[in-house]
């Protein structure tokens, strides 16, 4: 059984976020998948069920080193690039059966874009709660239109925290144990912190993502979180944006510069697609 290690959302100078993709042709059980993900110790490992996948509809499950999650943007991106390299894809539209539902995947100009779960506001946090779990000061935080911090899900639940400058984003830190307790109390994965100031002139946002409650202190590129970020900026931010395509920087303060591309369609029922480039790093043989 083959396992592929890729870096997803790579930028022109490298970076990205590593994921493992396992072509599961032996129908692994849950414990076996959990053990492989723990052994890999990457933020996510994707398991593509060869026996359950048919035509252009692929069944994929995702595991962090600690638990299964409904969907993972960068591991999904890695999965479809591997399927493409192996000649298993036909055409430019595919489907992706996950615990977040059946989601569309499209290939545009050589880049795969993964549809996120329908965006939903799943809760709120107060400014005081954010001050308690981070080094941020009140004047450094830009709340949503209601004066709160929105918690949004496009597959995974994240608190979206806008800050006033790129330097604030760079210098901020989390208080790990307090953030873990906060995430468990709210039933969320983590916090996605964003600045409208960016390092690169053609970027729309710079961001950092913290998810210590699921074993990820900081992640260099995230798909679902940036899907939630775009929904937030178009619908809930104080200064909302009326555009459909975005380039997002992440991982630049981790020496893993990553570029995430997000677009939304113009349908009444908003659909968000997240994409980027990948690089295959290693091919391994798993034996059972």
How would you sum up this structure, described in words?
- The chain has 288 residues and is of the alpha+beta class.
- It is 21% helix and 41% strand.
- It is built from 6 helices and 18 strands.
- Strands 1-2-3-4-6-7-8-18 form an 8-stranded mixed β-barrel.
- Strand 4 (57-63) and strand 5 form a beta hairpin.
- The termini are close together.
Write the layout of secondary structure elements.
Layout: E1 2-10, E2 17-24, H1 30-40, E3 45-54, E4 57-63, E5 68-69, H2 73-85, E6 93-98, E7 101-108, E8 111-115, E9 120-125, H3 127-133, E10 141-142, E11 149-153, E12 157-163, H4 166-171, H5 176-186, E13 190-195, E14 205-211, E15 216-219, H6 223-235, E16 245-250, E17 258-264, E18 272-285
Parallel strand pairs: 2-3, 4-6, 12-13, 14-16
Antiparallel strand pairs: 1-2, 1-18, 3-4, 4-5, 6-7, 7-8, 8-18, 9-11, 10-12, 11-12, 13-14, 14-15, 16-17, 17-18
CATH class of the largest domain: Alpha Beta
Q: Which class do the helix and strand fractions yield?
A: alpha+beta
Integer count of domains: 2
Give the mean pLDDT: 94
Question: Which features characterize this protein?
Answer:
288 residues, alpha+beta, Diaminopimelate Epimerase, Chain A, domain 1, eight-stranded mixed barrel, 21% helix
At a glance:
The chain has 288 residues and is of the alpha+beta class. It has two domains: 2-117 and 276-285, Diaminopimelate Epimerase, Chain A, domain 1; 120-270, Roll (Diaminopimelate Epimerase, Chain A, domain 1).
């Amino acid at each position: 059984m083959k396992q592929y290690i890729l870096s997803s959302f790579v930028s022109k100078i490298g970076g990205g976020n590593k994921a493992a993709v396992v072509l599961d042709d032996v129908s692994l059980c849950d414990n076996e998948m959990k053990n492989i993900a723990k052994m890999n110790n990457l933020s996510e490992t994707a398991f593509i069920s060869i026996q359950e996948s048919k035509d252009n509809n692929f069944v994929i499950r995702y595991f962090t080193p600690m638990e299964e999650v409904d969907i993972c943007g960068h591991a999904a991106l890695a999965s479809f690039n591997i399927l493409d390299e192996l000649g298993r894809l036909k055409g430019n539209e595919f489907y992706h059966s996950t615990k977040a539902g059946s989601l569309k995947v499209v290939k545009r100009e050589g880049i795969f874009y993964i549809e996120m779960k329908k965006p939903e506001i799943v809760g709120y946090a107060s400014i005081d709660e954010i001050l308690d779990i981070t080094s941020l000061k009140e004047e450094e935080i830009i709340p949503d239109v209601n004066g709160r911090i929105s918690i949004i899900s496009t597959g995974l639940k994240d608190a979206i925290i806008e800050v006033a400058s790129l330097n604030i984003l760079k210098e901020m830190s989390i208080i790990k144990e307090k953030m873990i307790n906060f995430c468990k109390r709210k039933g969320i994965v983590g916090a996605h912190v964003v600045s409208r100031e960016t390092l690169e002139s053609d970027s729309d946002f710079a961001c950092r993502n913290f998810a210590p409650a699921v074993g990820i202190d900081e992640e260099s590129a995230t798909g679902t979180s940036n899907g939630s970020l775009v929904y937030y900026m178009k619908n809930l931010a104080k200064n909302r944006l009326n555009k459909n395509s975005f380039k997002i920087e992440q991982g630049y303060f981790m020496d893993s510069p990553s570029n995430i591309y997000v677009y939304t369609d113009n349908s009444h029922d908003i659909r968000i697609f997240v994409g980027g480039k990948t690089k295959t790093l290693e091919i391994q043989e798993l034996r059972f």
